[in-house]
Amino acid sequence: KFGSSLILMVEIALALSKGKPKIAAQAAQSALDASIRQKLPSQPFFYAVQAFVAEQTGDFETASTALENALSQWPDEARWHVWAAEMQKGLAAPDTEIALKHLSQAIHFEPKHGAHYLKLGKIYLEIGDPESAIPVLEQAACSLSKQSEPRMALARAYQATGDIAQIFNNAERAAELDPR
Question: Do the beta carbons of residue 12 and residue 52 sit within 8 Å?
């Protein structure tokens, strides 16, 4: 329907993802189908395009499945793992364990990227597991030493454990970093 140019199909899908979501989804699917027929080694990229377009249109189920397919072939894409974890929030039945698994994988592939630790720590806090959150958030605070957000998350984690000294220590450090 869109011709044989994979790049053109991807460009159509991305350009129309917000304004013409049905056409965008068709273009993304056409690109993916062509990449499968041609047995391209870059096939996971086309799954990621499909995931992006589906996410833009609010179809989180398709987006999540497409991204899982991409990761099954290119499992070392740390940012795709973060994306897959964040996408769980949009699903009808979010799976925290899947989000935790993907963020752990992202940390494995990018251990110096503090934002991954922060996201993982926040999920631990959301599920009521401050003991697991604290060491992860300590790593985030160390990696993101000029940002207040990890310190505030640490203060919340310590609040859940009742450690008053650490609550004040981290809240004070957050206020120093971001005095507004």
Answer: no
pLDDT of residue 4: 57
Sign of CA dihedral 118, 69, 89, 58: positive
The three-state secondary structure class of 67 is helix
- Give pTM, 2 decimals: 0.86
Residues of the chain with pLDDT under 70: 1-4
Tens-digit pLDDT profile for residues 50-94? 999 999 888 999 999 999 999 999 999 999 999 999 999 888 888
The Cα 104–Cα 149 span in angstroms is: 20
Which CB contacts under 8 angstroms, 24+ apart, belong to 28-35?
A: 28/52, 28/53, 28/54, 30/1, 30/2, 31/2, 31/6, 32/66, 34/4, 34/6, 34/9, 35/6
Compute CA 108 distance to the chain's CA centroid, rounded to the nearest angstrom.
14
| Three-state secondary-structure class, residue 36 | helix
DSSP string, 125-154: HHTT-HHHHHHHHHHHHHHTTT-SHHHHHH
